[in-house]
Design a protein that fits this description.
Butyryl-CoA Dehydrogenase, subunit A, domain 3, Butyryl-CoA Dehydrogenase, subunit A, domain 2, mainly alpha, about 10% strand
């Protein structure tokens, strides 16, 4: 029998509910949680209210009250969070990454359409450098988001396909087991980077789409106003950007991202296809320049991570997001570079995104390199004292 309240439940009035609940009396950690299934026809669950949200109004979010609601346990007792929910969470984060790419795409299309229609001072606003630069960066962020989405999904597909081969009569070969382990690990590594960066880029693109529209974008007559509100949830649900950092930082500190960048991306030969060479004669030279930039960025990233040696855990956590983003920007730049070898339509974005990524990484390296760990930690702790001022006011 389940008793309690659940908030922020998507489609909460569904017929079947999977519920994480505390099954072990006297516990307070993850080991006390089990997974249950509840069928609506069993009764005991009521929808207290539908949340009135900023965005995604097409998706009902409910607050549920459980009063002696019959339920059946799923799987092993005490493994609800550790095994089952965490497994589901990675899939959900992949889904939010895809959602973020979709909103980025819609925002870019609306901004591009408006910029080609709106005239100011006798010419279309897309002809103004301030506008077309904004659109070019939006496109680069969009394509980088889609590239890491597809790469993450590819890794998931590979290890799941290998798992599907296993039957009572058929075991994986040693080579297949090695491949399975590799791609399962890569999926775990890429998922938090995908979720964090694609959702942040999604919010930035929605913001810039309104900016391209000017005052019109602030009005509900234009879709970008809704896209801006719908984008905001992507950095929050299924794990905030801050929680994605928590999931990713161990792969920074143990060298996994650096190893992946060097073994999977840096090691690949930069040779454009015949079709790309025919469509863009200078493609080879342009992409070799991008590759050189990414090699330098990787060396800088390695030096940045090395600065964490001997630092307190709290300080590493403080700098974690900057280092995770540095790894993500390098990986996304490489994925755009590799896409450009097969299709010339990605070359501009590979150049633009890698140039921006280099500037973003320079900023992060400079901050970490010049940061005094003792000062910054004491300063952050002193911020808590500001609450006294707030309450007094």
């Amino acid at each position: 029998m389940l008793n309690g309240v659940k908030r922020f439940i998507t489609n909460g009035d569904a017929d079947m509910k999977l519920v994480l609940a505390r099954s072990e009396e006297g516990t307070s950690d993850a080991r006390g949680l089990s997974y249950f299934v509840h069928d609506k026809k069993w009764g005991g669950v009521t929808v207290r209210r539908i949340e009135n949200k900023l965005g995604i109004h097409g998706s009902p979010t409910c607050e549920l009250v459980f009063r002696n609601a019959p339920a059946k346990i799923v799987g092993d007792r005490k493994m609800g969070l550790i095994k089952y929910v965490m497994s589901l969470m990675n899939g959900a984060r992949l889904g939010v990454g895809a959602q973020s790419v979709g909103i980025s795409e819609a925002a870019y299309r609306e901004a591009l359409k408006y910029a080609n229609e709106r005239e100011q001072f006798g010419k279309k606003i897309i002809e103004f450098p301030a506008v077309y630069e904004m659109l070019a960066v939006m496109k680069a962020k969009l394509q980088a988001s889609r590239a890491i989405l597809y790469e993450t999904a590819r890794c998931v597909d590979v290890y799941k396909a290998l798992n599907a081969l296993v039957t009572p009569e058929r075991k994986l070969t040693p080579e297949e087991r090695k491949e399975n382990k590799k791609y399962s690990r890569y999926a775990d590594m890429l998922t938090p980077l995908l979720k964090m960066t694609s959702s942040e880029f999604c919010n930035q693109n929605a913001y810039d789409a309104i900016q391209v529209h000017g005052g019109s974008g602030y009005m509900k007559e234009y879709p970008v106003e809704r896209l801006y509100r719908d984008a905001r949830i992507t950095t929050i649900y299924e794990g905030t950007s801050q929680l994605q950092t928590v999931a990713a930082i161990r792969y920074v500190t143990n060298g996994s991202y650096l190893e992946m960048i060097r073994n999977e991306y840096e090691s690949q030969e930069i040779k454009v296809s015949d079709a790309v060479a025919a469509a863009c004669p200078d493609a080879q030279a342009r992409l070799e320049k991008v590759k050189a930039r990414l090699v330098a960025m990787t060396e800088q990233y390695e030096k940045t991570v090395a600065l964490m040696e001997g630092k307190p855990e709290e300080y590493i956590d403080f700098q974690a997001r900057k280092m995770c983003e540095m790894a993500a920007f390098i990986i996304e730049s490489y994925l755009l570079l590799l896409d450009s070898l097969r299709c010339e339509k990605f070359i501009d974005s590979a150049e633009i995104f890698s140039e921006r990524a280099q500037a973003w990484n320079n900023e992060r390296h400079f901050y970490i390199y010049n940061c005094n760990s003792e000062t910054i930690l004491s300063t952050c702790k002193n911020v808590k004292g500001d609450l006294d001022i707030v309450y007094q006011e």
